[in-house]
Write a structure and sequence with these properties.
The chain is mainly alpha-helical. The chain is built from 13 helices and 6 strands.
C-alpha cells in the first residue's frame, strides 16, 4: 500500500516505498519492514487475525460511476489530474515543481481526487489515509490520481497492510471487480486465496441520503399527519471569494488543483457568477480570481 497521512504527508512512508519505483506493480523488499511492523505482523499471525476481512470491512472506495464517467468522457487512463505524479523525494525531486509539464506531488492531488469523489471535506480530521493500490503507480502520471487505483484506509491499519501480500492482492482484485481496471503493464489480477466474501461498499453504491434514511427510525402515525411548516429561506450560494478561500484551504494552495476544482464547481452549480460580461470560460475566470486573491492577500482571511 502506498499511502499518505491526511492532512499532511508522512515522510517516512513516502521514503520507505521508494524501492523498485520504476516499474508499476513491483513490490518493495520485505526487508524494508521496521522492527515495529515485524512485531505487529508476528502478533497478527499468532492471534490468527484475518487482515483481509478487517480491511474489507473498513476500506472506502470511490463511486464506480465517478471512475467510469472520467474514462468514457475525459481521459482514457482515468486520471483525475493527468499531468501530476508523486515526487521521488528519495531521489532529490521536490514536490510542488513542474518538470517537463508534469507537476510533482506529495499525495495531495490523489487525496483530493478521492475525497472529492466521496464527498469528503479534505480538511476533515477523519483519520483515513489515501492509498495507492498498485505498487509504484503513484510515480506515474497516468495512474497517480486514478480513482480505481485509490482507497481510503483508517490510519491505524495502514502499517499492518503495507507489506501484507494477501491484503494487497485482495485490494487489487476488489478494485478490478468494482472498476474493471488495472495498470496497462500488468495482467488482470486473479482472485486471491482467502478473498473476503463481504465488503463494506456503502460509499460505492449508495448516496448519503440513502444511508441516512436507513439509520432513521420509521415515521409514526403522528409523523404522517399534515403539519404546518415554517418557511425556511433557502441558503444562498457562497460568494466567489469565500468559495475560492475554501478551495485554497482544501488544496493547500496548489494552483492547478484549485482551478480545476473551480471549473467543476461552476459546472455543477456549486458556485455561481453574478455576470460574465467578458465571456471568460470558467478556467480563465477561476485563474484570475485566484491570482487576485494571491496578489491582494484576501485568500488567507
Amino acid at each position: 500500500m502506498w499511502c499518505s497521512t491526511h492532512p499532511g504527508p508522512n515522510a517516512v512512508l513516502l521514503l520507505q516505498f521508494e524501492l523498485n519505483q520504476d516499474t508499476p506493480g513491483t513490490m518493495p523488499s520485505q526487508d524494508a519492514r521496521s522492527p515495529a511492523q515485524k512485531a505487529v505482523m508476528r502478533a497478527v499471525v499468532h492471534l490468527s487475525i484475518d487482515l483481509q476481512a478487517l480491511i474489507a470491512e473498513v476500506a472506502l472506495w470511490a463511486p464506480v460511476m465517478a471512475h467510469k464517467a472520467r474514462v468514457e468522457n475525459e481521459n482514457p487512463t482515468g486520471a483525475v489530474y493527468p499531468h501530476v505524479r508523486r515526487a521521488r523525494l528519495g531521489s532529490g525531486e521536490k514536490a510542488g515543481v513542474v518538470v517537463d509539464g508534469i507537476r510533482l506531488d506529495r499525495n495531495n492531488y490523489a487525496n483530493a481526487a478521492l475525497r472529492r469523489a466521496l464527498k469528503f471535506h479534505r480538511r476533515r480530521k477523519d483519520g483515513y489515509q489515501a492509498c495507492h493500490i498498485w505498487p509504484n503507480t503513484c510515480y506515474d502520471e497516468r495512474y497517480h490520481t486514478v480513482l480505481a487505483n485509490l482507497v481510503l484506509i483508517p490510519g491505524p491499519l495502514v502499517s499492518l497492510t503495507d507489506f501484507d501480500t494477501g491484503v494487497i492482492a485482495a485490494l487489487q482484485y476488489r478494485a478490478y471487480e468494482l472498476y474493471d481496471w488495472h495498470p496497462f503493464e500488468v495482467p488482470p489480477p486473479e482472485r486471491p486465496s482467502g478473498y473476503p466474501e463481504i465488503w463494506s461498499d456503502a460509499a460505492t453504491t449508495d448516496s448519503r441520503a440513502d444511508r441516512r434514511s436507513r439509520r432513521e427510525p420509521a415515521p409514526t402515525q403522528a409523523d404522517s399527519q399534515p403539519q404546518l411548516q415554517a418557511h425556511v429561506r433557502a441558503p444562498e450560494p457562497p460568494s466567489q471569494r469565500d468559495f475560492m478561500r475554501r478551495l485554497w484551504r482544501e488544496h493547500g494552495g496548489e494552483h492547478d488543483a484549485i482551478i480545476n476544482a473551480w471549473v467543476q464547481a461552476e459546472a455543477s452549480g456549486e458556485v455561481v457568477r453574478a455576470s460574465n460580461m467578458q465571456g471568460l470560460p470558467p478556467q480563465d475566470y477561476g485563474r484570475r480570481l485566484l491570482y487576485d486573491g494571491v496578489k491582494k492577500g484576501w485568500l488567507e482571511k
